[in-house]
Design brief:
The chain is mainly alpha-helical. The protein is 72% helix and 0% strand.
Length: 79
Amino acid sequence: MSTMNISLPDNLKQFVDQQVAGRGYGTSSEYVRELIRHDKDRQHLRSLLLEGASSEATEPVDAAYFDSLRARASRQSSK
């Protein structure tokens, strides 16, 4: 694992320390890693949404479409 050192103003350091103590993180590094993972996930979701928004329009969906989608998702979660 690589090491990265960051400098924070005192008020941000205090905030990080509060989060570590109050939310069950073992270290400030664990907290920062989780923030980075969440940001990475957010960026990925944003790119998917933008890709979907720029894609061609399809036929309107109905209740049967959502029923089949739920069935597919249920089968996937059973694996």
